[in-house]
Amino acid sequence: MAIARDTESLSSSLDAEQLGLDRAGLLGMYRDMLVTRGIEERGHILYKQGKIPGSFYTGRGNEAGAVGVASAMQPEDAGTPLHRDMGVHVTRGVEPWRILAQYMGREDGPARGRDGNVHMALIEQNLVAMVSHLPAMMPVAVGLALAFRIRNERRVSVCWYGDGAAARGDAHEAMNFAGVRRLPVVFVCDNNQYAYSTPPQLEYACANLADRAAAYGFDGVVVDGTDILAVYSEAKRAIEKARQGGGPTLVECVTLRMEGHAVHDNAFYVPRELLDEWAKRDPIARFRLWLSEHVQASEAELSELEEQVKALLAEAQKRAESSPAPDPSELEQGVYAEPEQPQENADA
Amino acid sequence: MPEKTYLQAISDGLRQEMRRDERVFVLGEDVGVYGGAFKVTVGLLEEFGPWRVIDAPLSEIAIVGGATGSALMGLRPVAELQFSDFVSCAWDQLVTVAAKQHFRAGTPVPMVLRLPSGGGFSGGPFHSQSPESAFTHVPGLKVVCPATPHDAKGLLATAVDDPNPVLYFEHKHLYRRIKGEVPDERYTIPFGKARIERAGDDITLVTWGAMVYTAAGAAAELQSEDVSVEIIDLRTLQPWDKEAVLESVAKTSKLLILHEDTRTSGFGAEIAAQVVEEAFEQLDAPIRRIAAPDTPIPFSPQLENAYIPQVEDVASALRELAAY
After folding, report:
1. Is B173 found in the same domain as B117?
2. Hey, which residues 49-78 in chain A have their CB within 8 Å of chain B?
3. SS3 at position A23
4. Does the CB of B188 have a partner CB in chain A at under 8 Å?
5. Which of A139, A149, A157 sits opposite B51 (nearest CB)?
6. Which residues contact B129 (CB under 8 A, 6 or more apart)?
7. Strand A249-254 to strand B179-181: parallel, antiparallel, or no bridges (unpaired)?
8. Do B133 and B68 fall within a single domain?
9. What are the chain B neighbours of A181 within 8 Å (beta carbons)?
10. Domain extent for B211
11. Are residues B253 and B121 in the same domain?
12. Is residue A223 within 8 Å of A251, Cβ to Cβ?
């Protein structure tokens, strides 16, 4: 039995206007999706060229979820995006060259070579760098919201997690605490149907992960995670509700992970037919079609935008590759933050 | 100067921090209406209200994660775990998230985690542990173990000022048993600066927490046998005052390390290793360690007394060292 509300796709530009999105904003979202996918495609190549150490993860199939939610946030809102949510960093303005430098472990990556992949964030964009223990970020996201509530700020925290992370106890503690205190946090579940090789029926026994929201005293909604306007619409509604003091919402964005868990994994366990079916719903292709049908974006206009993104990323890659490797002599620096000012009245 | 219990010093210190800095708030189980399992936070809810003294659900992960997130947004949480034993539930939050955040992302996590620790009251395996050594092995965390009311208040103030995650181990057995002079005004005690509990010339005894009093009892016995023991109370383990220990060993040439935590890989092993590395030639006897045996801490008073180092255990080790 499903409990959470199911949403419909948006089909007219009028709806987009009602959401407060103008033509430039819509094209900007399309651009952010292209940049997101483009960075990850370049990352793939760099990995195969041996320029990216360790492993490499992408969020192919998740671009609408990441960019859609991030576009619904205000600059003062905060969040904890995970490794399928690179679009969040792109939307909030991390420069692509720095992301590529991050992948390659260079000095100009946000983690300065101290961590890799999408394990990065710029605090000035109010994002917190994720850890590999993915659901461990959920109580942290709730803590961001707790700070906003304590200070009576009209800010919202967005907490990303996945179908795999949903199985961990951290998810329960985070949602329970947020529900009890009606904190301004929106839980965004990127349900891409596979936790590494494990399918939904081995991860959870309820119909939808969003159904769980009812148990925590807030609303859950299931949204087509390949439809960026549907994602934006529900994220906006949830974020503004939280901002008004209405407490948390769980927005489950359903998509399919279109590549392996990481680049080493060919995802042989995902049925071919399933991939074919979801390939037809590619979030970028869907939005491109929508833009041409509803805001009269011409083929020439869209192609030009795509070429601009390609040029941007080519330049970004060049700049990233020229970023220096981190200096090993600085390895032991920064384990601890230095006290802001000398301690006064010290009494030994 | 007013005399206060160890517990009152922590409680008053916390209230003073909250009055001084509105970023400071308290988060934990039963810290509000009930005033904390040990009554350290009594009266704070009434003074500061429910959004600065937050009764959390029974969720150590949410408490430590919530503290981390709010610290990242500029607040100064002082979170309480009801017993330090329950920190195991929040290991990921501390070790995976909070400890590594500054190194990886350059973002400070200014939070204090209060951890009532230690045995001596038949709390059994899950309410009496002293897990401080484990956290000294985690780069990015600071570890504080006050022994006196004066230090308890001053180290708490320093912990609140510190821009890093600080684990503040308060020893439960000292709460109401130990009294001392505590200034009313705010003061800080620097991390990594040991306190000489007792000056002496023949043997250096390094310890912290409740074992400071066990050490003092043993040193008093040895005094009557004409052996002069210098007791160093480290006060903080991460960072720890290696210089004070080396200076004392240079004078005494003999070292005994005492702790309530278990022996193998206890922090005493680190102290011994560093003294051997840096002062081997100054030692006139093998370094001795007195610690709990490598077992869980037991319940029955007879077993618990056998587990926790006693004055007699320390006195006899001191005699052997003196005779070496």
Report:
1. yes
2. 78
3. helix
4. yes
5. A149
6. B84, B85, B117, B118, B119, B261, B297
7. unpaired
8. yes
9. 54
10. 195-323
11. no
12. yes
CATH of the domain at B252: 3.40.50.920
- For residue A33, give every residue at least 6 positions away whose Cβ sits within 8 Å of its Cβ, in sequence order, or none: A63, A64, A67, A87, A228, A283, A284, A287
| Same domain, residue pair B142 and B204 | no
Does B247 fall in a domain? yes
Q: How far is A346 from chain B (nearest CA, A)?
A: 5
Residue B264, classed as helix, strand or coil, is coil
- CB–CB contact A343 B57 (8 Å): no
Is residue B127 part of the annotated active site? The answer reads yes
Q: Are B99 and B223 found together in one domain?
A: no
CB of B141 within 8 A of CB of B135? yes
Domain boundaries, given as residue ranges, for chain A: 5-323
Report the candidate in B197, B211, B318, B225 with the shortest Cα–Cα distance to residue B266. Answer: B211
Mark yes or no for CB contact B188/A180 under 8 Å: no
Query: Are B107 and A128 in contact (CB < 8 Å)?
Result: yes
Domain total in chain B: 2
Q: Do B188 and A336 touch (CB under 8 A)?
A: no
Alpha-carbon distance B194 to nearest alpha carbon in chain A (angstroms): 8
Name the region of B122 (left: φ>0; alpha: ψ -120 to 50; beta: rest).
left
Instruction: Using a CB–CB cutoff of 8 Å, tell me whether A338 touches chain B.
Output: yes
DSSP code of residue A342 = P
Note whether A129 and A120 are within 8 A (CB). Answer: yes
ipTM of the complex: 0.96
Residue B190 counted as domain residue: no
Specify whether B149 is located in the same domain as B239: no
Bridging pattern class, strands A78-80 and A157-162: parallel
Residues 124-143 of B with CB under 8 A from A: 139-140, 142
A25 close to A233: Cβ distance less than 8 angstroms: no
Please tell me whether residues B41 and B145 are part of one structural domain: yes
User: For A5-323, which CATH class?
Assistant: alpha beta
Identity of the residue numbered A274: L
pLDDT in tens, chain A (348 residues): 677 888 766 666 667 778 889 999 999 999 999 999 999 999 999 999 999 999 999 999 999 999 999 999 999 999 999 999 999 999 999 999 999 999 999 999 999 999 999 999 999 999 999 999 999 999 999 999 999 999 999 999 999 999 999 999 999 999 999 999 999 999 999 999 999 999 999 999 999 999 999 999 999 999 999 999 999 999 999 999 999 999 999 999 999 999 999 999 999 999 999 999 999 999 999 999 999 999 999 999 999 999 999 999 999 999 999 999 999 999 999 999 998 765 555 554
Of A136, A176, A177, the CB nearest to B97: A136
Say if A332 is an interface residue toward chain B (CB within 8 Å): no
Contact residues on chain A for B74, CB-CB shorter than 8 A: 147
Q: Classify residue B242: in a domain, yes or no.
A: yes
